[in-house]
Amino acid sequence: MERKSKAMAALACVALLVLIGAGCARCTMVHSGQQDQPGQEQGETASVDAEEAKDSLEKLLGTKWTSQDGKSAMSIVNGAFVERSGDEEKITYWTPEKSTSDESGFSESIWVSDSLTSTQSPSTIRVDIAGDGSLVIACDSFKLAASYTIDAPESVELGITGNVGYLASLTGIDQAKIAECLQGYVTAKCPYAKTASWDGEIYIDANNDRTSSTFTLDDPNATIVTVTIDGKTGKISAM
C-alpha cells in the first residue's frame, strides 16, 4: 500500500508537469510574433553539481538528460523517469529504497512499474561521473535508451583565483587573455568546472623562450590545466 501511495503521488506530479507544459505551450502560441520583454525570466533546468549528486537519485530531481546517440531525452521528476523520442513518450514510475556511494558515483536500489496499477519490481540505477565531469545514468528499466548523459549547463564565466596578475606581468601578457584562454579550454573540455585556481608556480623554458604555469579546475576530477605562453609570438595556449 505504501508503494502504491507513492506511485499515486508520482502520477500526480507528472500530471502537474504536463499541465504546466501545456499552459506554457498555449502561452507561446498566444504571444507568437511578439518579442520577449527585457527582464522576463526564462524557464530553468535544475543545475546539479556532480559532487553534490553523488549519493542520491532524489538530488537529481528536475534534471534533463540525453542519450549518447542524441535520439532520446529523459527527465527525472519526483517518482518517475520520463523518456521521449520524437512523438514517443515512456514513463517509468520509481520508488527509492537504498543508495550506496563510491568514488565514481552511486548505485541505488529502486522499485519500478510501468503504470500505477501494475506490480512494482526491483531494479538498480547507476550514476557515474564521466571524465569531463558530466554525469552518466544507466538503468535496465529505461525503455528508449540504455543510458543517458546529463545535459551540460549553460556556459558561464569562469572564475579565476590566485595572483594571476603576477603571471601576466612576468610574461607581458594581458591578464584578460589568460582568462580567455582558460575559458575556451573549459568550454571545450570541462564544461562543469566553475573556477580555475592558479597554482602559483611558473616554469621557464629559456632555450625555447616559453613560460608555462598550471591551474586546477574545480570539476570532480580536479583537472590540471597547463597554460603556455610563447615569448617569441605572444601566443597563449592551454592543455
Summarize the structure.
It is built from 3 helices and 13 strands. It is α+β, with helices and mostly antiparallel strands and 239 residues long.
- Label the CATH architecture of the largest domain: Beta Barrel
Largest sheet: 8 strands, antiparallel, barrel
Query: What is the fold-level CATH name, i.e. the topology of the largest domain?
Result: Lipocalin
**Class inferred from helices and paired strands:** alpha+beta
Number of distinct helices: 3
Let me know the average pLDDT: 80
Region (Disordered): 32-53
Biased composition (Low complexity): 33-44
Protein name: PepSY domain-containing protein
Keywords: Signal
Description:
There is one protein chain. By secondary structure, the chain is of the alpha+beta class. The chain folds into two domains: 2-21 and 46-150, Lipocalin (Beta Barrel); 159-238. The chain is 22% helix and 37% strand. The chain is built from three helices and 13 strands; from the N terminus they run αβββββββββααββββ. It has helices at 2-30, 164-171, 175-189; strands at 64-67, 73-77, 80-85, 88-101, 105-113, 121-129, 135-139, 147-150, 159-161, 195-205, 210-217, 224-230, 236-238. The strands form two sheets. Strands 1-2-3-4-5-6-7-8 form an eight-stranded antiparallel barrel. A five-stranded mixed β-sheet has the order 9-10-11-12-13. A hairpin with a 2-residue loop joins strand 3 and strand 4. It is elongated, with a radius of gyration of 23 Å. The termini are far apart. Residues 1-45 have low confidence and may be disordered.
